[in-house]
Write a structure and sequence with these properties.
The complex is a heterodimer of chains A (81) and B (328). Chain A is α+β, with helices and mostly antiparallel strands and 81 residues long. In chain A, 28% of the residues lie in helices and 32% in strands. Chain B has 328 residues and is α+β, with helices and mostly antiparallel strands. The radius of gyration of chain B is 23 Å and the shape is globular. The chains are: A alpha+beta (81), B alpha+beta (328).
């Protein structure tokens, strides 16, 4: 599922997606964005949120925020690279 | 009759096989690291002097089986030309084993390979009451089984919180396998008694709110494998790399002093306990922040105890750095 985010950014719901497809989909989505644009990704707890956040950071993206919801995480990434 | 370099023979590394006149040559490869240029030499020697194969030993080295007695000297000379020499065996300090450590592994906290080379250079073949094995692991995952070594070294790291960067996502709390972190006033609070210093919380933090406050080593002692395996005991934490040589020197001195004949370090601990050993080896280091897991009787506990908060919980969060507390 993909929609325009509330703050003019983009949103990607990757709950239920397995590793490393969640990371690869996040990375592919980010390549379409311009530097400075933001992408909010919804991820399952545990390995999915850990690895997408860590790998995106390693790729040079900025992790803007990470928020815990009841049974998933909302990760906001700002495209930098 | 073959003539041998006496120093080499004294340290061992040439192992008598059950076959008459056949020996296995065990190489000295500290930390299991061997230059690529040496590999063709090992292969050729195994072909020409052995039976065309090598055996990879338990302790990270290469053994060349079936070298015949009257060819041993030539075999060793061939190896020596490439800078290869036999390992140590018998009642001596053995060649240390080590993982790749922080050089390659994201989990690594210490320079395990550098330590292995240095320990081997300094202590190779040093006589001891019984065999003495040193294992070095870069992190508490402990792939090198430091907790089963006569002297085990494990790299540890202490997380430090930058409260200004923390958004309270709790990834670190979920990641910690030791239940050492709890959310308190939207920030992670660390139980210093539960934290094993693995650094998982640091690695998982996507915002760099958690970083390495300090790194150092845990020292474990008295472990062994064999017929009667014995787990090592944790004897000190936060030993620095430059203190390691003194730790080994004093450990060997204590070992020689207290051994009753041919016995491993752990056997002495079983008889005498570890307090005396800790005092002699690490006592002088406590002023430098080295902590003893089980301090000598009567001495104050060396763990840092956080200040108690008014409501009974132990908190120190606003400083943004200490991140220490003790859970219920």
């Amino acid at each position: 599922m993909e929609t325009a985010g509330a703050e003019g950014g983009w949103m990607l719901d990757l709950r239920g997606e397995v590793c490393p497809l969640n990371y690869l989909k996040t990375r592919r989505r980010l390549t379409d964005l311009d530097n400075g644009e933001r992408l909010e990704v919804w991820l399952d707890p545990g390995r999915p949120v850990e690895s997408v956040a860590r790998s995106s950071k390693d790729d040079g993206q900025k992790i803007v925020s990470i928020k815990k919801e009841a049974d998933y995480y909302r990760l906001v990434i700002e495209k930098r690279a | 009759m073959a003539r041998f370099n006496v120093t080499e023979m004294k340290s061992g590394g040439i192992i008598k096989q059950k076959q008459r006149d056949a020996f296995t040559v065990r190489l000295r490869l500290p930390g299991g690291r061997v230059g690529a240029e040496k590999l063709p030499v090992i292969a050729r020697v195994a072909d020409e002097y052995g039976q065309g194969y090598v055996h990879l030993s338990v302790r990270q080295t290469v053994e060349i089986p079936y070298v015949l007695y009257d060819r041993l000297e030539d075999c060793l000379a061939e190896l020596a030309k490439a800078g290869l020499s036999p390992s140590s065996c018998g009642p001596r300090v053995r060649v240390p084993i080590a993982c790749s450590g922080c050089e390659l592994n994201p989990n690594g906290n210490i320079e395990t390979q550098r330590m292995a080379q240095e320990i081997d250079r300094r202590w190779f073949g040093t006589p001891t009451p019984h065999k003495f094995k040193i294992n070095i692991s870069g992190c508490p995952i402990d792939c090198m089984a430091a907790r089963r070594a006569d002297l085990g070294i494990i790299g540890i790291t202490e997380p430090k919180l930058d409260a200004g960067l923390c958004t309270g996502c709790e990834l670190c709390v979920a990641k910690c396998g030791d239940d050492a972190l709890t959310m308190t006033e939207d920030l992670p609070l660390r139980d210093v008694f539960k934290c094993i210093g693995c650094g998982d919380c640091i690695h998982v933090c996507p915002l760099d709110a958690l970083g390495a406050g300090r790194t150092g080593m845990e020292v474990w002692a008295g472990g062994k494998w064999g017929k009667r395996p014995r787990a090592a005991q944790r004897v000190a934490r936060w030993v620095a790399e430059e203190q390691l040589d003194g730790v080994i020197e004093r450990t060997l001195a204590w070992y020689r002093e207290h051994a009753q004949g041919r016995e491993r370090l752990g056997a002495i601990f079983d008889r005498e306990g570890i307090a005396g050993y800790q005092e002699q080896v690490f006592g002088s280091l406590s002023a430098d922040g080295v902590e003893l897991e089980m301090p000598p009787a009567g001495a104050p506990v060396a763990w840092k105890v956080p200040p108690a908060a008014p409501d009974g919980a132990s908190l120190d969060l606003q400083g943004g750095g200490t991140m220490e507390g003790r859970g219920a």
